[in-house]
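FIELD: query
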Amino acid sequence: LKSGLTGFDGVPVFQSDLLVVKKQKKRYCPVYFQKEDIERELRKASKSSKGSALSKQIMVGSLEDVLKKMEINDRNSGWDDLIFIPPGKSLNQHINEVIKCGGLPRSWAPLQRAEFREVMSTGEGRGHGGIFCY
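FIELD: result
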């Protein structure tokens, strides 16, 4: 996807530091595929904020760049705590599903990227909407 107005290349993904959570001694930094989903989560997290204030808390990047950085960086670089939230799902709902699967293995990022590539190339995969149980 390329936007002529912004010069943005790739699949947009959305993130906010306000939505980072800790559950069972694990840090989760959610990454969303739809702006509406992250806005909904931010409204839940801060009911007193207005929509325009919320949009200032949203960072936009490209999925391709995120995956490259995850692949290049080591485990303790801060890129291993990302959790991709499937469109239409809430953060808590998805994290609970991940924990129910046994949580993220320490080397989940390479597994997730391999699964993502499989889904992109074949349209099929073994995952649960972005986080995969192995």
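FIELD: remark
The CA atoms of residues 118 and 125 lie 6 Å apart.
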